[in-house]
Amino acid sequence: MKITDIKAYPVWVGSRNQLILKIETDAGIHGWGESGLSGRELAVMGAVRHYREFLLGRDPMRIGALWQEMYRSQYFEGGRVLTAAIAAIDIALHDIVGKALGVPVYQLLGGRQRDFVPCFATTGAAMGPQLIEDTQLLISKGWSVIRTGPGHPRSDDPHLWEPRQSIGQTATWLTKLREAVGPDPVLGIDYHHRLSVAETASFCQRMPSGTLDFLEEPIRDETPEAYAALRQMTDVPFAIGEEFSSKWAFLPYIERGLTQFARIDVCNVGGLTEAMKVAGWAEAHYIDLMPHNPLGPICTAATIHLAAAVANFAWLEVRVSPTEELGFYDMDLFPVQPQLQGDRFPVPDTPGLGVEVDEALAAAGEFRFWEAPHLRRADGSVTNW
After folding, report:
1. Residue 133 has pLDDT above 90, yes or no
2. For residue 266, what are the domain limits?
């Protein structure tokens, strides 16, 4: 079996582009993959084009060898653009091999260890009574792990973000939320790296211990020493890693105990090949996976197979629930895709990933330039989104 073509489709789905990729073979078997670098799809497509030149005619069954060749056979190794391209190709290769062997992808990763994959829901409610109502609604629908987002005083400027104006309001309402729902539900917040070390410490210290079960990405991740300093100031478990593009980026966070949940993204880290190496490393340090999954059905399916095959798994992010529907799971574009049952995905038994795409619809789909919000502080300086 040989690779005969690699096609990339940047398609607008819901409120964002999804860069989906198809690998075709001379055996009539194809595989689907997805890249995770939202907002920079054209850059990833350029990398895919480079890889395509030497992947045509190659054996898709040699997944690990092809991964090494893509990563190592150039002077400038790694980086988020290249590993996002490698990830899409790697996932599609796993889909092909699973179909060729007639087995689900998790069989290629060591076999199934669980029957379903538990998920967490997100509420985007503003800090206030609606936050409590949304969370209670999710709990009533069977969700036991719920993520919130940071609050901020209302402003006429949607691009204004002042961290110190956020932390007091957010800490106050999260404390009220914990009092309202009791000790059992798992509660967390994604601060989307909008804080500094001092701001994060102040935020955590304004809440009683035990209010939060996880704090996701409070500060940027380029400097492990910053997280090491923050670790000394708070006892809230951290969930870090959605932006990491290799096992090497995870290294200090795992080895130094700087995260308690690994927010691995299979579509950014280099695909299932690299994700399994990070998972084993995390297992050796008693760190559970809590995968990042803000994309579409292909990313979801690949992560379900990863979750099925590892021992150290907590919850999978899913962006559809009674309090959130971003439109990423288009049934016309993806007529075959994983189906959420309550707060979990059943582990599939069909060959490959278990996703199919209407290619004609993808080819006719629209690419739109999309930028994440460019936030600024009151003094006009740029701050993180």
Report:
1. yes
2. 107-352
Place of tokens 């809440």: 207
- Residue 385 vs residues 219, 235, 268, 374, 376: alpha-carbon distances, Å: 11, 25, 19, 7, 9
Tell me the whole-structure pTM to 2 decimals.
Answer: 0.97
Q: Find how far residue 80's CA is from the centre of its chain.
A: 14
Is residue 253 within 8 Å of 240, Cβ to Cβ?
A: yes
Closest C-alpha among 271, 364, 293 to residue 9: 364
| Residue (of 14, 12, 17, 11) closest to 326 by Cα position | 14
Q: Do 269 and 186 fall into the same domain?
A: yes
Beta-carbon contacts of 381 under 8 Å, excluding residues fewer than 6 positions away, are none
Tell me which long-range contacts 370-376 makes (C-beta under 8 A, separation of at least 24): 370/16, 370/17, 370/38, 370/39, 371/39, 372/38, 372/39, 373/158, 373/159, 374/159, 375/159, 375/160, 375/161, 375/194, 376/159, 376/160, 376/161
CB 211 within 8 A of CB 179: no
User: pLDDT above 90 covers what percent of the chain?
Assistant: 95
Sequence letter at residue 204:
C
Q: Write the pLDDT tens digit of every residue in 47-81.
A: 999 999 999 999 999 999 999 999 999 888 889 99
Contact 318, 344 (CB under 8 A): no
CATH of the domain at 45: 3.30.390.10
Domain at 133, CATH number: 3.20.20.120
